[in-house]
Each structure stands twice: as C-alpha cells, then as structure tokens.
Amino acid sequence: MRRLLSILLLLCGVCAYAQFSPGELSEAHSHLEGMSNCSSCHEAGNRVPDVKCLDCHNEIESLINLDRGYHSSSEVQTKTCVDCHSEHHGRSFNSVRVDEDGFNHSLTGYELDGAHNRIECRDCHQPTNIANRDIRKRTDTYLGLGSTCLSCHTDYHQGTLGSSCTDCHNIEDWRPAPGFDHDETDYALTGAHREVECVDCHEIGTRYGEEYQAFSGIDFGECLDCHRDEHEGRFGRNCTECHSIFSWTQMKSNNTFNHDLTDYPLEGKHNEVECIECHTSGRNSQPLAFGRCDDCHDDYHEGEFTTTRGKRDCAECHNVMQNFTWSSYSISEHNETDWPLEGAHMATPCFACHKPDEEPRWSFALESTSCVSCHDDVHEGYISEQYYPEKTCESCHSSNTWSSVEFDHTRTDWALEGAHESIDCRECHWRGEDDVQVQEFSGLNTDCATCHDNPHGRQFEVSGTTDCLRCHSLSTVWNIATFDHSSTEFPLDGKHAQLECAECHQPKIDDDGVERVEYVIDAFQCIDCHGSN
Fold first, then answer.
1. Is the pLDDT of residue 257 over 80?
2. How far apart are CA 203 and CA 214, in angstroms?
3. Beta carbons within 10 angstroms of residue 69's beta carbon
4. Contact at 8 Å (CB) between 301 and 250?
5. Pair 116, 173: CB distance under 8 Å
6. How far apart are CA 197 and CA 182, in angstroms?
7. What's the pLDDT tens digit per position in 46-91?
8. Pairwise CA distance, residues 178 & 168, whole Å
9. I need a surface site. Which of 26, 261, 317, 353 has the fewest CB within 10 A?
10. 344 Cβ contact list (under 8 Å, min separation 6)
11. Percentage helix, strand, coil, to 5, in the chain?
C-alpha cells in the first residue's frame, strides 16, 4: 500500500510540472531546467526582470555600464531582455535572432563603412577574432569583437610600423595606402624612384613564419644598397658621377666617360641606349664588332631582303637618327617592284599592308597582291561572281578611291534610265539604319513601289501591282507626264479643263485608314461635286 502511494505521488508531481512548465529550455539555458531553478530567472508572477538576466550575462552588463555596444543604444534601452530573447521553445531554439541583412550596425557604436559594408557578418564575428576566452567558447555569438583594425586583421607589418593602420590605409581597400607620403620619410622619392613599384625596393619575404614586407630598417645611404653594380666595381661606388637619378640611360653632361673618344662615337638613337644593351658582359673595355648593323642587331626581316649579293645592310633603309619603324625606302623604289603604288595606295602607310593588326611582325614578301588579300570583301555573298570574277574589285572600283564606282548597269536585267542614272548605288542596294546596313545586289524587285513610297494606295493597282510609269516618267521630277484625262470615264472639257487637279481630287481617308488624295472617284455627276444648288 505504501509503495502504491509513492507511485501516485510521483505521477502527480510529474503532472504538476507538466502543467506549470511552459516548455523545454534552449540548449544555452539547459542547465537551468527544472522547477527548482525557475527563480533563477523568474520573479513572482512569472515576470523575468532584466537584472536576473544580467546576473549571468555579465559581459553585456559591463558594456551597458560603460555605455557601449548594441545593448546601450537608444533603440534597445527602452526594451526588456525578453522583448527580444524568449525561452521555453525547445533545445534547438536560438534566442539570439538577428536579421543580418537588415541589421543597423551603427547601433553597436561601430558603423560599417567602405569594404566593411560589403562583407558577411561571420567574416568578422568568428572565434579567432574574439580575445575573451569565455566569450570565444560560445557558438553563434556576436559579442567580443574589438573596434581596432588589428582585432580582426593580421598585422602584415608585424609591429614594425605601429598599430594605427588608418595612418596610411583607409577602409575602402588595403591598396593603395592613400595616407602614406614617402616624402615624409627619411628617404624622399625623386626622379625615376617615383615611378618604381614599392615591391621593387621593399621585397616580400618571410618573418616568424609569416609573409612579411619590409618597410623599415632598409639601408639607403648609397645607390649600391639597392642597385647591382653593373660595372663590377671598375668605376667605383658613386653611380651619380655618371648617371642621373632620373634615368640610367641619361648620362650626366659632366660625367667622366666620353664615348666619342672610342672608335665608335655614339650618334642618334645610340645615345639613348643603356651601356649594358651593347656591353652585355658588363666589361666595357671588351672589344665589340660594329662594322655592320647585324653585328649587334638581329635581322628582323629574317632574310626577306637577301639578294644574290648576300644580306643587305640595315643602313640601306634605316639610320641611327630615327626609330627602326622609320625607313628611307621611297615610293620610287617601291614602283620598281612587281607591285608599283598607284592612286590611294601612294598615301597608304606601310604598316597597313605589311603589318596588319593581327600579325605579330612586319612582312614584305607578300604571298598575294589581290585586293582581298588586304581588304575585306564586303560584297561576299551579295554580288554574283559574274560581275566581279575572282573577286576582282577593279570590276567596279579604282585604286584612287572606294567611293568612285564605275559599273555598267546595262549588264544586268535592269538598265538605268533617267533620274536613276544619277543616284547613289546605296539608295537602292543598301537597307537598314546607319549603324546596321545590309547589302542587296541580287534578287531585287524592280517594281517602283519596292523603293518608292506609293502615295496612291491601291487606286491604280492592276493585278496587285501599281505601275508608276503609266503616268510618270523616269525624268528627274515626279510630275505627271503621260496621263490623259480623256481616257477616263470623265473627259475634261469647258471650265473643267482649266481647273487644277486638287480642285476635284482632294484628300480622303481610304479603306486602309490612311489619308490619300482621291484620284479614282466613283461618283462624278454634277450634283456629286457642286451640290443641289
């Protein structure tokens, strides 16, 4: 009996707990499960005061006391903890719910600007960026971040340049560093140094197992601290005795070396060449051959100008005063070749034929001299081959200008007569807008209305076709030339013969809904025009 009573009391307790508990706590508060822990959060009447929350959440209480962080913002100060964080929804419930897309980060006291505004929340809010070990243990927390650059970002400079990143960088991008001015350092940049990439002097290496770029502790007392001695010590260590800081090839006027005293005085473009370009061994006293251009220069033309007498020297066309692209080769010399220049070709630059854009190098031994070997065949597929056999452009064009076209239209099935003889080919053979035009040279309909607007609609249509030539001629004007009113059902006589056409033939809306001058009049009794009066 006593055992049965114990079982009944236990069942009553379970039922009572089920009646009083609003639901299972979340995983974060699971250690407070059970009726004996209700008072840890609740007061009488089930109210949950903020002070009880803050008894456990000391890190938030500390921020509130310091008037820092999101929970100190005006938007949150007017709320209680349970307004945002509810409980008793089960173990998997997360009581910290943040709309990451719509959250106003400025309420935390750290406004997101620049690149910070374009990254995901968890790019910053992750355990590796949290200094406090207790907070770091939590999952999905937004607490614990500092507001300095180095609280999230690795110090690439490893402490050598201090901790204030914003002295040089901004929050848009790490590179470039707009706040840095090299002129404020102990080594202001002058001359060609201003054009040098940072990494050329500040090399990237490894320090303490991490990538590191040295920006401090670099020797700069003399040129050889950074630059290799091309002369291998023969001219001393003071490079500035001969060279300028603006360019290695720009020798000082008072330098101690005068190349004109050698067997090869420097002239023209040779004066602009760096010594090492010719003195490749670095030993400027070593004899060099200089009798022919190809003693130093490669034959760019790869033997194209080799004759039975052997290689021609570059100096026959080029000289040291100009760039290699300049040539003394004249039109008269070109006219002695198998393809003399005529017409517009005489004004065409050499590269247009001998170095097209898609070719990597100049070529002077052309495989073909046909027009289409250089020019695009814009008529391909549009003009029958019978009118330009083997794509011979000269069938219509001349070498003087493309716009001058000479074509005998009588060779076609539609000879040009009258006004048609003076119009531009494009008027009939091109269709479309200015930016997109299509050629039409074959299969054209020769009816007048194919090219010309038909202002009469279907009034003069015979078997579906309106033949303009029944009334008009091919002269330069559209005036009526051959129409005889006597051939109609209403011959003109008396006063009618003196009237202008427009007196009787007036605009009218036709069956197509278009206003046209009515020439085919169905009713023409006196009363139809003059009325009953």
1. no
2. 6
3. 20
4. no
5. no
6. 13
7. 789 999 999 999 999 999 999 999 999 999 999 999 999 999 999 9
8. 6
9. 261
10. 399, 400, 401
11. 35, 5, 60
With contact defined as beta carbons under 8 Å apart, do 261 and 282 qualify? no
| Burial profile 490-501: b = 16 or more Cβ within 10 angstroms, e = fewer | eeeeeeeeeeee
- Other Cβ atoms less than 10 A from the Cβ of 191: the count is 12
Kindly tell me if the per-residue pLDDT of 342 is higher than 50. Answer: yes
Strands 515-517 and 243-244: unpaired
pLDDT in tens, 394-408: 888 888 888 888 889
CA dist list (Å): 151 to 68, 129, 154, 285, 484? 17, 6, 8, 60, 100
In three-state form (DSSP H/G/I as H, E/B as E, the rest C), the secondary structure along 199-258 is HHHCCEEEECCEEEECCCCCCCCCHHHCCCCCCCCCCCCCHHHCEECCEEEEECCCCCCC
Q: How many CB atoms lie within 10 A of CB 188?
A: 11
Tell me if residue 323 falls in helix, strand or coil.
coil
Q: What is the dihedral of CA 332, 333, 336, 337, to 10 degrees?
A: -130
Closest CA to 56 of 78, 72, 37, 69: 37
Count Cβ atoms below 10 Å from residue 130 Cβ, excluding itself.
19
Element holding 4 (H helix, E strand): helix 2-20
DSSP helix/strand/coil, 61: helix
Put simply, whether the predicted model's pTM sits higher than 0.70 gets the answer no
The tens digit of pLDDT for each residue in 429-461 reads 888 776 777 888 888 888 888 888 889 988 888
For residues 468 and 456, what is the distance between their CA atoms, to the nearest angstrom?
A: 10
Burial 306-339 (b: 16+ CB within 10 A, else e): eeeeeeeebeebbeeeeeeeeeeeeeeeeeeeee
Interacting residues of 199 by C-beta distance below 8 A, sequence separation 6+ = 213
What is the C-alpha to C-alpha distance for residues 188 and 190, in angstroms, rounded to an integer? Answer: 6
One-character DSSP codes across 487-507 = GSSS---GGGGGS-HHHHS-E
Question: Which residue stretches of 21-105 are H helix?
Answer: 50-56, 58-65, 74-77, 81-84
Q: Which residue has the tokens 């033939």?
A: 505
User: C-alpha distances in angstroms, 336 versus 327, 329, 350?
Assistant: 17, 12, 16
Q: What length is written for the chain? A: 533
